[in-house]
Amino acid sequence: MQELTITRHNEMIDPLLHIWGWEIPVYLFLGGLVAGIMIISGYFVLQHRYRHTVFTTFYLPYIALALLSGGMFALFLDLEHKIYFWRLYTTFEWTSPMSWGSWILLIIYPALWVNTLIRIPEPFKGKIPLFDRLSALLHQHPVLIRNIGVLNMVLGVALGMYTGVLLSSFGARPLWNSAMLWALFLVSGLSAAAAFVHLITTDVYEREMLAKADNAFLTLELFVFGGFITGLLTSTKVHIDAVRLLLDGPYAPVFWVFVIGLGILVPLAIQLFAVNHKIRHTAIAPILVLLGGLTLRFVIVYAGQYSTWA
Question: Which of 64, 175, 214, 297 is least buried, going by the fewest C-beta atoms within 10 A?
Fold first, then answer.
């Protein structure tokens, strides 16, 4: 029977972190954040919020493009043979999560760009006449705008799921070998996106709505965490030992304090008081959610590399 062998920190962690350092967790976090932003932005498009000068349909698609580019740059830095990255787009492998992800990311750029044409901010109007004409054409055909909203939501779900599927496809890492990982990363990305909009929007309606949505996402994330942990604990000894890295192993302090405590429970409590008008809305809660989502990726990636088969 194969068992998980956990070696000392200096024997296992250092070589593996040399393989996957900070770049992959940052890429996964920004990818999840962009996925959540696309879903939220697409939803507000379907709700006709683009008819008003509000944040979610006015500036959010531009910010998503910048964040996605940052995530792609982090991924590029992690590549060992950087000059050959273009070869990912010379073929398509149906069984390769990396191939799926590469093409999804390629499609997301034009989807976000088209979303920016729905409402062009005043400082940019007239700068590129072609964009102005395309924007006017969209408003002549509302069905096109509705389809853009749906497209962004669908691609956002695909991107959010992909960030988890990418890791779970590595069967050699027992901690990642869970069917719940894609759901965990998708919900976490939605929560981070809701917190991000809550943090920087100036629209009272959006702030209130996104705070309520984030409370739902944080609650759902706790249940998904329960499914993720329970699934591993009821599996083989290898998977039990792997998840114990988070529960009572070397990563337990960071997991319980920064991911569960400060990343979910504390901001959930603060935002519950805020949406019930017991306290004023504060930036503390969304900042904690964003930091918790980033820490989650670091913990899962690092602990996953710590777990292996003997």
Answer: 297
